[in-house]
């Protein structure tokens, strides 16, 4: 694995040199002297280089494309954060969402036929060889079933696993080195985060898992005005091929078309936030890859816009404890109740139990209070997270790996919402939903449901209590029993020993009777031997 990582490092270095990504760093103004001096350690910068006609955004996009799916997904995430990137770079990175160069259509057809066990013409009445869209992991072809339904056929790119394995090997090496070198890095659990991402990316290569996720998400939003999920045709789904309903909508980033059809942009942005919180708190099952390339807007009712979600390869879920913790933290944070935020962090185990609440509260207030000097609509959740993580150095705050997907999804939704409607007040949109969720969670109906669940467990608990009492009263009752044959052998051995003791006792008793009385002290060993021998012979 280390050899693969070294090979991949040289590949990354070649791409960096080819697309001059180092220029993106060194062209930045006011670089620290130690960072600017790194250019002296790069031999390729000692030689004259021809000027390039590519813009910096195009160079970054092409480099990420060349490096493979992991880097493409990183670019997709960056493209949603226009508040963090220059416009020219963000525009180029948006092309990574659904315009990655496709692979050979002949390979796609051959793979589909191998997976389905039949010719494409036997399964579909029409199959478009030219791909409809292409992304980092798969590409999509339009088709029509024999029964007349319009569908899309998704097929996984060939040869992805070796490239992904090399990238992950390198990421693991970096994560392990960071944990060994830095206490701050250890608090972020980089190895666990990379491990979770490894599971996520490999799960994304299994299209049957994506089909199952899509079916679940479709059931969760059945009949909803918020979001629509296409139907999956299970009979035609395989590990590397997915067939689902073709949807017709406007890409969520196509602002011109949305404006032409007079889409209510404010309502669209607010519904995006509601979709996120509904998935997280109502269903505990959320689409964790909601970048603009996977989100469309229905053209049916522009005055009441509905989202259409595709590509459910990455999903996340939260426990009831995580849900409760997140909701309480959000409420406390936006009420500026920093003491409650500190207590929740301690209670949840994010910071050590011996942490002084007042000191932690003061640190949170110091980093978060400046944020609230702005209007709520200008507050970035990404900025809030970064500010909170600044307290980690002093209080050993740990990042929970199971929440990384949630944080990523929240950043996607925030970036998308502000792109659709820049004046979006994220908190005003989310607060009513969270309040309703908290009321429902502690409503009499929910309490009765919890009691009912506990009552259902009573027979099981009763049996456990009875078993425990039996074990305490008879501690050796359930000890392993000896085999019957062995027990019979032991009985005969003891009887033989008893016969020997009887014989020996009789001999001693006869000697004692001749020498003195049987009641004399010298006769007591004979009596003991006789008694022990008799006991061993007559015992069960």
Automatic annotation (TrEMBL):
Keywords: ATP-binding, Cell inner membrane, Cell membrane, Kinase, Membrane, Nucleotide-binding, Transferase, Transmembrane, Transmembrane helix, Ubiquinone, Ubiquinone biosynthesis. It is an enzyme of class 2 (transferase). It is a multi-pass membrane protein. GO terms for molecular function: ATP binding; protein kinase activity. The keyword Magnesium does not apply. The chain crosses the membrane at residues 492-512, 518-538. This is Probable protein kinase UbiB. The gene is ubiB.
């Amino acid at each position: 694995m280390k050899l693969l990582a070294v090979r991949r490092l040289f590949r990354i270095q070649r791409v960096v040199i080819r697309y001059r990504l180092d220029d993106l760093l060194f062209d930045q103004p006011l670089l620290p002297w130690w960072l600017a001096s790194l250019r002296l350690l790069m031999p390729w910068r000692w030689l004259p280089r021809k000027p390039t006609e590519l813009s910096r955004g195009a160079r970054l996009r092409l480099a990420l494309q060349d490096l493979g799916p992991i880097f493409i997904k990183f670019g997709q995430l960056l493209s949603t954060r226009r508040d963090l990137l220059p416009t020219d770079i963000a525009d180029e990175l948006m092309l990574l969402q659904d315009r990655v160069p496709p692979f050979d259509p002949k390979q796609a057809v051959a793979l589909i036929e191998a997976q389905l066990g039949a010719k494409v013409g036997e399964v579909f009445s029409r199959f478009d060889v030219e791909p409809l869209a292409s992304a980092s992991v798969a590409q999509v072809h339009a088709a029509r079933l024999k029964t007349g339904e319009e569908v899309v056929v998704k097929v996984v790119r060939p040869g992805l696993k070796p490239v992904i394995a090399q990238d992950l090997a390198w990421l693991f090496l970096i994560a392990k080195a960071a944990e060994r070198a830095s206490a701050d890095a250890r608090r972020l659990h980089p190895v666990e985060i990379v491990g979770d991402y490894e599971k996520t990316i490999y799960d994304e290569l299994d299209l049957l898992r994506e089909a199952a996720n899509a079916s679940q998400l479709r059931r969760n939003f059945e009949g909803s005005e918020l979001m629509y999920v296409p139907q999956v045709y299970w009979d035609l789904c395989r590990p590397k091929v997915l067939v689902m309903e073709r949807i017709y909508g406007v890409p969520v980033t196509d602002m011109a078309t949305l404006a032409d059809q007079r889409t209510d942009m404010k309502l669209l942005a607010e519904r995006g936030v509601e979709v996120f919180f509904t998935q997280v708190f109502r269903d505990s099952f959320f689409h964790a890859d909601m970048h603009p390339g996977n989100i469309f807007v229905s053209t049916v009712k522009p005055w009441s816009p509905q989202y259409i979600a595709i590509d459910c390869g990455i999903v996340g879920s939260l426990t009831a404890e995580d849900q409760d913790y997140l909701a309480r933290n959000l409420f406390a944070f936006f009420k500026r109740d920093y003491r409650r935020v500190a207590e929740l962090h301690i209670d949840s185990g994010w910071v050590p139990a011996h942490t002084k609440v007042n000191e932690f509260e003061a640190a949170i207030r110091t980093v978060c209070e400046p944020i609230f000097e702005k209007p709520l609509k200008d507050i970035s959740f990404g900025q809030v997270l970064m500010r909170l993580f600044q307290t980690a150095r002093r209080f050993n705050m740990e990042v929970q790996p199971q929440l990384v997907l949630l944080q990523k999804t929240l950043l996607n939704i925030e970036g998308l919402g502000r792109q659709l409607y820049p004046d979006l007040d994220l908190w005003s949109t989310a607060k009513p939903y969270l309040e309703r969720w908290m009321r429902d969670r502690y409503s009499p109906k929910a309490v009765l449901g919890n009691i009912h669940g506990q009552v259902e467990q009573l027979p099981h608990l009763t049996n456990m209590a009875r078993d425990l009492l039996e074990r305490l009263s008879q501690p050796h009752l359930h000890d392993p029993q000896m085999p019957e044959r062995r027990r019979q052998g032991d009985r005969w051995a003891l009887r033989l020993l008893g016969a020997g003791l009887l014989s020996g006792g009789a001999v001693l008793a006869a000697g004692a009777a001749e020498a003195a009385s049987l009641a004399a002290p010298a006769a007591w060993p004979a009596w003991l031997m006789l008694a022990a021998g008799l006991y061993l012979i007559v015992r069960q």
